[in-house]
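Pipeline run #58 for the internal structure catalog. This entry was flagged by the ingest filter as a single-chain record with no existing model, so it goes straight to prediction. Upstream metadata was stripped on purpose; only the residue string is passed forward. Reviewer on rotation: M.T. Logging verbosity set to normal.
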Amino acid sequence: MAKTSMSQRKTMGRVMHEYAHGELKSGPRGKGGKVRSRRQAIAIALEEAGASKYESKAKNRRNLARSKAKEATGRTAQQETEGKARVGARGKRESSRAMGGQNAKTNAKTNAKTTTRRSPRRRTARRASR
């Protein structure tokens, strides 16, 4: 098996976190119930991360892209229960800067389309004053 990329490792870590907290579900849309087997959780993690040796390269790429889109929009079980805007946001209820620093769990839908880019710092004014 090839070496996994950083994004694949983060996705696998997120899935295993969901398993450890009892949030990981199996089947389409979680209809299969909670995952109780660590072995099954690892299989799901590899599948979501696009690192499965049983899938083609194209299918693996599709799976990773789907997982990253899910993480970016805050639709993972971890984000829904813990209220994070994105995977990697620090603290239990903290959201990313892109979400305006507000509580992502309650404001994720309203803030999703109202994010603004930070304006770049003005260096010319600083140079002129020297």
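catalog note: Residues 6-111 form one domain.
catalog note: Residues 28 and 130 are 63 Å apart (CA to CA).
status: ready for reviewer M.T.
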